[in-house]
Amino acid sequence: MAYELYYWDGIQGRGEFVRLALEEAGAEYIDITRESGRGRGTGAMLAIMQSDGEALPPFAPPFLKDGDLIISHVANILLYLGPKLGLVPDDEALRYVVNGLQLTITDFVAEVHDTHHPIATSLYYEDQKEEAKARSAAFIKERIPKFLGYFEKVLNQNPEGSDYIVGNALTYVDLSLFQIVEGLVYAFPKAMSNYRGSYPLLAALRDRVERRPNITHYLRSDRRLAFNTEGIFRHYPELDIGVS
Fold first, then answer.
1. 100 with 155, same domain?
2. What radius of gyration, in Å, describes the C-alpha atoms of the chain?
3. Which of 41, 68, 99, 118 has the fewest Cβ atoms within 10 Å of its own Cβ atom?
4. Dist CA 167 CA 185 (whole Å)
5. What is the pLDDT of residues 61-86, one digit of tens each?
6. SS3 of residue 123 by DSSP
7. How far is Cα 99 from Cα 82, in angstroms, rounded to an integer?
């Protein structure tokens, strides 16, 4: 039975972290909102979220349906999928390390979102542009180095070598770090112009993920949507500043 992935159509967003894991593993899945008919489409997602019949309806997408089980939140979904897709170490203790790293990525993604919506998600970007400029300047100066520097450190201190973030094989966190780098380069090309020099191990990991056959195939397919100014990572030139 195919997994069912529920996320907003037209954007990569948070759903892309789950999508990359499914694509890497060659798992059969249905992107529900990107299809119409047969109980699919955005309406099908909203029906689950707004249903009075669901004992524990998900608060927001993404969520994954596996049979009758519904799992919400990116890190939680990946914690569930990791063993099934072969994207976590065999060591159970290390699986919690992987989950902790994914939760750190969750924190980082929330900060990325707040660069263009620092006041309220209910307001348009144009209604908070000046505040977004201030928030983005602090994010570029302080938070990008804080988070990327941390992941670079973890890669450097991996006892199994720096090819992967945990252990000696690919995990879903490696895939998520690829997405983080890609998103930041799209949103802040000036600020990220020298990331390869500042974070060489992270840059090498990004390239290593891109070369994986299933990921390469996915990135070239129409299933991989382009970044745009509706998702988490948004490029507004006025928010992008170079780093001295």
1. yes
2. 18
3. 68
4. 27
5. 999 999 999 999 999 999 999 999 99
6. coil
7. 10
